[in-house]
Amino acid sequence: MGIAASELCRYVIKPTLIYLGRHDQTAESLLLGIAASQSELGSALHDRRGHGLYSITELRHRALWDTYLALDPERASLVRGLASQHAFLSAPQLELTVNLRYATAIAWLLVEQQRLVLPAPGDVLAMARIWKEIFHPQGRLRDFTHAWKSCISSMNQVAC
Question: How far apart are CA 1 and CA 22, in angstroms?
Answer without folding.
Answer: 29
